[in-house]
Amino acid sequence: MTSNDKEASLEKGIGPYLETQAEDLTELNTESGVNRAYELKCHLINKCLQEEIGFGRYQIELFVLTGFGWMADNIWLQGVAIVLPQVQQELNPVRVEFATLALYVGLIIGASLWGVLADLIGRRSHLMGIRYRSAGSPNFTLRSVSGCLGFGVGGKTISGALYLEHIPGSYQWTLTLLSAWWAIGQLVASVVAWGFIGNFSCASDVPVGQCPKAENMGWRYTLRLGALTLLMFICRFFIFNLQESPKYLIANGRDEEAIKVMEHLARKNGKSISLTLDQLQEIQGSATLPPRTMLQVPLFAGRKLAINSSITILLWRLPPFYLRDRVPSGNSAVSVTYRNYTIVSVLGIPGSLIACAVVDWTRRSGKYSFGGRKLVMAVSTTLTGIFLFLFTTSNSQAAVLGYTCTTSVTSNAMYGVLYAYTPEVFPAPHRGTGDSIASSFNRITGILSPVIKIATTSAVGATGANVNGWARKRIEYPWV
Predict the structure, then answer these.
(1) How many other CB atoms are found less than 10 A from the CB of residue 66?
(2) Where would one find coiled-coil regions in this protein (predicted)?
(3) Hey, is 266 helix, strand or coil?
(4) Could you say which of 3, 71, 116, 273 is the most buried, measured as most Cβ atoms within 10 Å of its Cβ?
(5) Number of other residues whose CB lies within 10 A of the CB of residue 54
(6) CA nearest neighbour of 324 among 316, 313, 332
(7) Domains and CATH numbers, the chain
(8) How many alpha carbons lie under 13 Å from residue 144 in its C-beta half-sphere?
(9) Could you give the CA distance from residue 192 to residue 261 in angstroms, rounded to a whole number?
(10) Percentage of the chain with pLDDT > 90?
(11) Are 34 and 428 in contact (CB under 8 A)?
């Protein structure tokens, strides 16, 4: 039976399809990384989501809640970097970069742990954020809390997997739209820093170590962003009734709980469903995955899946862009610096929106169907690399601001597609682990980026070469 025949048979119902099959439904499919019984049950779940539950109140609230996680991640990635110049000016630590290093160590541990736990004990177990309180702390405490903070927000990518498994297929484009929250996080951090650090900090010409605390409270006020993270935590645990992923439950033999989750989603949306436990159990053979270790996760079960998983994970090696310190001499007032940073942050939002619109437009059937995610990722990464190369030619503040703004648009588009594509490409039962490996890879290269920047004056150019190289790889492998 061809794949088209299978789909046609499935549309008529699982029962008639099963009667025509003699295959072992428990055998692992090396193309998808899961067994056939699991695929059939997921077909029923997806059909129910698409045709009966739809995209309603529950999905909208989950979109906002997931967005909070993405927003918190970038608030603190940017927030720690934003306050370091003022910390250096006041406290004069031997190596202020250790705060960033501690943050990334925490991010690596968090990314490694939360993703694996999401596959082992459930999607909703991952941490949405922790309260950040270091505004009155000197060197060691700041580094320690930075590490704890990184550990807390390190599992942000798992939010995308949880969101993906609760929405109908026709609204999968909203996963790309989630990246706008990441850009909003940067904007919030930069606006708060502009208001506080720009007005409550020592002048930039004050010698390092001679800036009194009373005149440099801006960075402490900025770190009160922890209250916003705490509010997100309250919404997650006390306001929104977050449900477990039905696909995770099926993969662990908990079909009855999966049906209850689907019924809850339907009630929340004011709908009803016809899917029953009997229909799931009509599928002979267990969809439950056997106990496994990290080395046994079938992310590389077949050649196609192995290549695609490898390319996706390697794409995450693109290091963060360290452009903040490359500012030419001229007007270096603190308020001007953070004003420019806010302008750059604002332009990150349209980058995410453009990616969302173009991804959906280019994957439609018809005259203008020519690429989808592959096209948008390749174009956005190529443009990002070009603008990073051009950035190295800057000889004025206007040029720096211009190239940084354009890079903000294209890089946010690039990451928007990458964040959406990553949970889609991995098998559903192993999305947490796949996201964990990819995110950990990104955090590891994040630690290496400052080292490259210190060791060479052309670090941005090297980043541009990396970006363009991976744009080419994205085009070479067509299964996107």
Answers:
(1) 26
(2) none
(3) helix
(4) 71
(5) 18
(6) 332
(7) 57-243+298-476 (1.20.1250.20)
(8) 7
(9) 39
(10) 10
(11) yes
